[in-house]
Write a structure and sequence with these properties.
heterodimer; A: 310 residues; alpha/beta; Rossmann fold; Alpha-Beta Plaits; 2 domains; 4-stranded antiparallel sheet; B: 18 helices
Chain lengths: 310, 506
């Protein structure tokens, strides 16, 4: 898959404050990166650098191989950035505003008409197209911002807190829209505090603190990254404590009970899970449920020890 | 209302925000109707004399309204549009769009003023009706004068866009710029009697065209030169604003751009000085000898303009040091060279302005020394404020205070002494007056008696102190950056883990 976005040692300093600290990563077509971290961690600054709105003190950002500052004429229109506070002309209707955005991006005539119709439908604003932006609720404005970002059809989409102000249905819909962007081959970065959402649709997660990336991994590997082991939970019927028997299994460790279930740490992977289960059965233990425990993103996030930036 | 396609997205957007073509035309039509009715009523009243005389009077008033519409309404509506786009972050969406920057700037210059231009056009038509209906003279003068007014306004509007596009907090800065423009307008009204500034630019051009239209002094050469000068400034501000729109993080003007601005300004000044003398030769329009005040005004503008290239070079140097891996050894680039080049350009312009008139050698030498001392002082103060606070505003404030305070103190002291009967009116000013470069220039070129040599000595003293202060600030900044980089080098390398390329993982 082609690399759409490259961040190379990006550093942003504001006098004595380091807002972004030597951040490097790259994203390919279809990647969906969730950016999480406390307030003031540097997420928005990083997104602004990638969008070409903020010059890095050192390092560079490239979109489709073109530097966002030095070759900005080639990058413009390829990056869509939706800031956390929705920018819009209040006096315009939703439709007029989107036509303005299309015009600004060189999309005119029937093509503009089709795209605007499509995105108004996608963000459930079709019935609001003739209403003034000023009359919309915060959540609806957020939808306008998302439509505004996507009308030009950028290859790289940067969304800063896109869920803020959205109702539950809006959040579900946003997840679908974002997932569809990745399916279309775009590279998407979403900065959000709603970790459950990110966990659901992101392919990668980056935890950022004090400008630096603490962890960056594929979402499936996030909870187990580095150890190669994970926890399994199982329910065993029958009298007595089976902890001693489970301890005789090769490779098993950290065995304890949580409620009526046993928790065993063992090597991670499907084959390893089958091997563990086979050893339990061989010991004639009556297993009625068995599952690999996957830590939630919230748990992983809290484990990293990130703290609020002063 | 459907979205209008005008070929420039900013025009289209602004037209929608103004309420569309229909509203614009209705407003302009209503304005023309009201203006026409007021004119007709004015002419019909016997107290104002015969109809032709009354029409002539109200035409002058209408011309003034035309100027007010362009400069008042046209400028304020743009300020409002630019502030709104900054505050709502629309400016960022616009900045990163594929629309060429030049087109965006043009959009901001004309777009918010579409209604203003329609009103101006309506006013011009009402004026034509008066001229034709009451046989008031040259239609050509009225039309060309109005066009020149529009061009002069567009030149000011383009500068307004340049001032605004790169600001993070535009409200305050725009207000300052607005007040500054207002003060300039006021000053230029006074300078109408002392035309020394580049009279063919900005509001002055509009004002002059207004006066000349009415006293039948308009000539082809005046209009041609004025239009060319305004067009030159429009192109310059347009280019500078387009660059600033894309890279607001860089200094507002490149060093070359700032030098080009000086060249343009001085060229307009010198051409203006020579042309105005010929234009008004034998006329009663300006009764006094305007030669020395013109040179004074030119030198006054030089005091300000010398700072632009210096400021730009210093800001670029700061960025270079900030981004350097070895701040202590980052080269000083060309700050001093730029200051010297700015001075050379000034001296050539001064020479061209006065070559055809007699002047006192001592007067000229002292003027040159004042300009040199001012360039040195500006260099030091701008360097200090740029390296201490990251911007040059404080340096400008300090410099202006240094220009103004000695004049005020000396004038107050002089007034007190006269009141107490210690001295009489004809006694020279206290030497404190010429401590200020402005005061010294006034003494040299406007006949105010004050000891200039002592003043120039003090100015050089201040300049040397400013340079020591400025270089000290730069040195301190270099050391701070060096310390920050050294600390970073020794930081625990495991504190942050930089992720490897993830592109292959999916």
């Amino acid at each position: 898959m082609s690399v759409l976005l490259e961040a190379n040692d990006i550093r942003v300093e504001f006098d004595k404050l380091i807002a972004v600290d030597d951040v490097s990563f790259s994203m390919s077509s279809g990647d969906l990166l969730g950016l999480i971290g406390p307030n003031g961690a540097g997420k928005t600054t990083l997104l602004r650098v990638l969008a070409g709105l903020q010059s890095p003190t050192s390092g560079s950002a490239k979109i489709m191989g073109n530097d966002v500052l030095e070759e900005s004429h080639r990058v413009r229109g390829q990056v869509g950035f939706a800031p956390d506070s929705p920018p819009a002309y209040e006096e315009m209707t939703v439709e007029q505003f989107l036509y303005f955005i299309a015009d600004l991006n060189g999309i005119r005539g029937s093509e503009a008409h089709e795209r605007i119709d499509h995105w108004l439908d996608q963000v459930w604003l079709d019935d609001k197209r003739k209403e003034k932006v000023s009359s919309l609720s915060r959540g609806m404005r957020q939808r306008v911002t998302i439509a505004q970002t996507l009308v030009p059809s950028p290859a790289v989409v940067l969304l800063d807190e896109p869920s803020s102000g959205l109702d539950p249905a809006g959040r579900i819909q946003l997840r679908q829209v974002i997932a569809s962007l990745a399916a279309q081959g775009k590279a998407v970065i979403v900065s959000s505090h709603i970790l459950a959402d990110l966990e659901e649709f992101c392919t990668h997660i980056a935890i950022i603190e004090r400008g630096g990336i603490l962890r960056y991994s594929h979402v499936d590997d996030l909870s187990h990254e580095g150890t190669g082991r994970c926890n399994y939970k199982m329910k065993i019927i029958g009298d007595g404590d089976h902890t001693q028997e489970l301890a005789t299994i090769d490779g098993a460790s950290h065995i304890h009970m949580r409620g009526s279930e046993y928790i065993v740490q063992y090597d991670m992977g499907e084959l390893e899970a089958a091997q563990l289960l086979r050893q339990i059965v061989e010991r004639r233990l009556a297993v009625i449920s068995f599952a690999m425990i996957k830590e939630s993103l919230e748990e992983v996030y809290l484990k990293t020890g990130v703290r609020q930036v002063d | 209302m459907q979205y209008p396609a005008l070929g420039n997205p900013i025009w289209s957007g602004q037209l929608v925000l103004l309420g569309g073509w229909r509203k614009v035309f209705w407003s302009a039509g209503l304005y023309a109707l009201i203006a026409g009715v007021v004119c007709a009523l004015f002419i019909s009243v016997d107290d104002f004399g015969p109809p032709a005389a009354a029409a002539n009077r109200i035409l002058s008033f209408l011309a003034l309204i035309q100027l007010a519409v362009l400069y008042g309404s046209g400028s304020s509506i743009r300020t409002k549009a630019l502030v709104r786009d900054h505050q709502t972050q629309m400016m960022e969406s616009i900045r990163t769009s594929p629309t060429p920057a030049g087109l965006i700037v043009l959009g901001y210059v004309i777009g918010p003023a579409i209604a203003t231009i329609a009103t101006w056009l309506a006013g011009m038509l009402v004026g034509l009706w008066l001229i034709i209906g009451y046989d008031l003279g040259s239609i050509q003068s009225w039309v060309v004068g109005n066009i020149l007014m529009l061009f002069s306004a567009i030149s000011a509007w383009t500068m307004q866009v340049f001032l605004s596009v790169g600001l993070k907090k535009p409200t305050n800065r725009l207000m300052i710029a607005y007040v500054a423009c207002y003060i300039l307008v006021q000053a230029e009204s006074a300078i109408l009697l002392l035309p020394g500034l580049p009279i063919f630019l900005g509001f002055q051009s509009g004002w002059m065209s207004l006066r000349m239209m009415r006293v039948n002094l308009a000539t082809d050469s005046y209009f041609s030169v004025a239009l060319a000068a305004n067009f030159g400034m429009i192109v310059f501000w347009w280019w500078a604003a387009a660059r600033r729109l894309r890279r607001p993080d860089l200094p507002a003007l490149t060093t070359r751009g700032a030098l080009l601005l000086c060249l343009l300004w001085y060229t307009c000044s010198v051409v203006g000085i020579h042309l105005v003398r010929n234009l008004f030769a034998g006329s009663q329009f300006l009764k006094q000898d305007i030669k020395d005040p013109m040179i004074l005004a030119l030198c006054g503008s030089m005091l300000i303009f010398v700072a632009f290239p210096i400021s730009s070079a210093i800001q670029r140097l700061r960025i270079g040091i900030f981004e350097s891996q070895n701040p202590l050894k980052h080269p000083r680039s060309n700050c001093v060279l730029v200051a010297i080049l700015s001075l050379v350009i000034q001296l050539v312009a001064l020479g061209l302005a006065i070559y055809d008139r007699s002047f006192n050698n001592e007067q000229l030498v002292m003027t040159v020394l004042i300009l040199v001392a001012t360039a040195m002082a500006f260099h030091g103060l701008l360097q200090a404020s740029c390296f201490r606070k990251g911007q040059t505003a404080t340096g400008w404030t300090q410099m202006v205070a240094y220009w103004v305070l000695p004049i005020i103190l000396a004038s107050v002291w002089h007034g007190i002494q006269i009141t107490r009967g210690v001295i009489n009116d004809s006694e020279p000013m206290n030497a404190l007056f010429s401590f200020s470069p402005v005061g010294a220039l006034i003494s040299l070129w406007a006949g105010v008696d004050a000891e200039v040599k002592i003043g120039i000595g003090v100015q050089f003293g201040v300049a040397v102190l400013a340079l020591i202060y400025g270089y000290g600030a730069e040195k301190s900044f270099r050391r701070q950056r060096h310390a920050v980089l050294a600390e970073r080098t020794h930081r625990d390398p495991t504190a942050y883990s930089v992720p490897s390329n993830s592109g292959d993982e999916t």
